[in-house]
Amino acid sequence: MASAQTTPTLSNIRTGLHTDYNRIVLDMSGLPAEYRLREVSGVSDCGSGNPVSMPGSNEILEVVMFGAAAHDDNGNPTYTGPRNFTPPNLNNVRRVALTCDFEAVLTVAVGYTNTSSWHRVFTLTNPNRVVIDIGL
């Protein structure tokens, strides 16, 4: 008998330009148990420790989600998109990078140019998603 996926998983990363902010949406199968955010000067891959390039970014917001993954219980990726990319058509966010997917810890870094930008992170349901807004 197959067991149900125990950890909420990432399936897609979407971006959008709004009047006053840039939005990054993490589509999830469920919501993380907890998340924390912090501004950092650089990010690294949690597996290798190697620095992750965030070109064009003057600021980096790191969002760490506990109880979330980008792979299923069998190790198969649930998110198959790019792990480090320049989002199209955004005027402040320059980079989005998936920097960690290990032991139910999923980390996404968002690099942006305006050092005076505000940010907010929240969750929504139906469908489940983590939303990251970066002000202009």
TrEMBL record:
Alphabetized InterPro entries for the sequence: AMIN-like
Highest taxon, organism lineage: Bacteria
Domain AMIN-like: 9-134
Protein name: AMIN-like domain-containing protein
Organism of this sequence: Lentzea rhizosphaerae
